[in-house]
Design a protein that fits this description.
CATH superfamily: YbiA-like
Number of helices: 6
CATH architecture: Orthogonal Bundle
Oligomer: single chain
Structural class: alpha+beta
CATH topology: Tetracycline Repressor, domain 2
Number of domains: 1
Number of strands: 4
Length: 159
C-alpha cells in the first residue's frame, strides 16, 4: 500500500471493517465496559443515566447508533454538537477521540491492523457529511481524521 492510496471503510464489513465503530470489540471508558466503540460513543450523548444505560445494553452496535441518532434535542447533553460554525468543537468530537483511542489501545490486534495501514488516508465512506465523506465526497471525514491521529500516536510510541 502506498501513501497515495486511501483505505476506505464503512460499517464493520470487509478487510477494513475493524476501523468502523460498529466493529464488535470490548472498550472500557471512564470505568464503564462496552461491547463496541459505537456503544461507548453513543453512551456519552444522553443527559439521563437510564437512557445511557439503555444504549450501553443495546444488543448490537447498530442499535446503539440508532438510539443515539434518534434522541430528542432536549435529551442530549449540553454542548454535544458544538457551535454551528465550528461543529468540530463539540463534546461529540472529544468523546469520539477518547473512544477511538481507547478502542485501539485496549485491543492490540486492532492496533496492529491500524498501524499496518501505514500512512494512507483513512476515509469513512459514510453518507454522513460530518463523520464520513458525505454523499458527494465533500464531507469532513472526521472519523477518518481521528483514526489517523490515533494511528500517529501509536506509531510515535513504537520502540
Amino acid at each position: 500500500m502506498t501513501e497515495t492510496e486511501a483505505v476506505r471503510f464503512y460499517r464493520a464489513v470487509g478487510p477494513y471493517g475493524f476501523l468502523s465503530n460498529l466493529h464488535r470489540c470490548r472498550v472500557e471508558l471512564d470505568g464503564v465496559e462496552f461491547s463496541s466503540a459505537e456503544h461507548a460513543y453513543q453512551y456519552g450523548k444522553p443527559k439521563t443515566p437510564p437512557v445511557r444505560e439503555w444504549i450501553r445494553a443495546a444488543p448490537l452496535p447498530r442499535h446503539a447508533a440508532l438510539a443515539g441518532h434518534h434522541l430528542s434535542t432536549y435529551d442530549v447533553v449540553e454542548g454535544w454538537s458544538g457551535p454551528t460554525d465550528a461543529p468540530w468543537k463539540g463534546a461529540k468530537v472529544e468523546r469520539m477521540e477518547r473512544v477511538v483511542e481507547a478502542k485501539f489501545r485496549q485491543n492490540a490486534d486492532l492496533a496492529a491492523k491500524l498501524l499496518a495501514t501505514g500512512r494512507t488516508q483513512l476515509i469513512e465512506e459514510s453518507p454522513d457529511g460530518f463523520w464520513g465523506e458525505g454523499r458527494w465526497a465533500n464531507g469532513h471525514n472526521m472519523l477518518g481524521h481521528i483514526l489517523m491521529g490515533v494511528r500517529d500516536k501509536l506509531r510515535a510510541e513504537e520502540p
